[in-house]
Design goal:
Blueprint: E1 7-9, H1 13-23, E2 29-31, H2 36-40, E3 55-58, E4 64-68, H3 76-90
Parallel strand pairs: 1-2
Antiparallel strand pairs: 3-4
Length: 91
């Protein structure tokens, strides 16, 4: 679908590697220990301790096209795929 998936977490690279290996992830992960990317997207939890599991769909123009502020893993990929198809059809 000509889309790039990138994960961002505040975990250190070694912790991310364990997570990637455990779940067999096939996309790159960015380590953001100072939470600058997380804060830029407004994805930090209310108490400021951890990040919310959120998804941001960024269009080819670099603008955020859609936000899922609280992600439930089951069925989420299908929702994102449907949204990409919908935006591709209208754009």
């Amino acid at each position: 679908m000509n889309a790039l998936v990138v994960g961002v977490s505040a975990d250190k690279p070694a912790t991310q590697r364990k997570f990637i290996d455990k779940f067999g992830l096939t996309f790159p992960m960015i380590s953001d220990p100072d939470k600058s990317v997380i804060d830029a997207y407004g994805a930090r939890e209310v108490l400021g301790v951890s990040a919310k599991r959120s998804t941001f769909l960024v269009g080819p123009d670099g603008k955020v096209a859609r936000v899922w502020p609280r992600v439930t893993v089951e069925g989420h990929a299908q929702d994102v795929i449907a949204t990409i198809r919908e935006l591709s059809a209208t754009g």
